[in-house]
Amino acid sequence: MMPTCPLCAAEDAPHFHRDARRDYHRCRRCDLVFVPPAFRLSAAEERAVYDQHQNSPDDPGYRRFLSRLFAPLCERLAPGARGLDFGAGPGPTLSVMFEEAGHPMAIYDPFYAPDVSVLDATYDFITASEVVEHLFAPGETLARLAAMLRPGGWLGLMTKRAGDREAFARWHYILDPTHVAFFSAASFRWLADTLDMTVEFPAADVALLQRR
């Protein structure tokens, strides 16, 4: 049996690629490439990988990296727009950049900032930088985030996008064992249509979805 797609729940995701550690399937409906549940890490194993990250707002290189999402999203925000950085990681930085630009921020991370009360609020924008590729249930999680946006609000996502089979086989992004969901531009278009949002691609690894 083919595994169920974790983005659109279709049961039409044939085998796409196999490497030394894992299998990958590609959904015919939404184009997501994903790792079946049997190959996912435990929460403790995930945390051990994330604990090795050395991200910090004091690192100018990391700020430049995040600016690919920060800059185009900031241009679209009204002064004082309130945001949430979802999946902020062990060294929250994107939230600091938005706060410096005059946008009050909340943060959430299941390992490092697990205050779930922030998920009961509404926001003018929500960011998730290098997060969606880690999600076991991206369809459910992204629908929840979209529902937390006020009308006209923005969902800013940063993740590298999957290519064809040949490029995927050579792709460094699949070497990270915590990466289990790989979006393409088509995946984001499907998501936008499903959530009644528009989508823009201001950079090769950035998608900006706006609630209608």
UniProtKB/TrEMBL annotation:
InterPro entries attached to this UniProt entry: SAM-dependent_MTases_sf (IPR029063)
Keywords: Methyltransferase, Transferase
One of the protein's GO biological processes: methylation
Entry keyword annotation includes Transferase: yes
Gene Ontology MF annotations: methyltransferase activity
Pfam families associated with the record: Methyltransf_23
The keyword Transferase is assigned to this record: yes
Name of this protein: Methyltransferase domain-containing protein
Organism, as annotated: Halomonas shengliensis
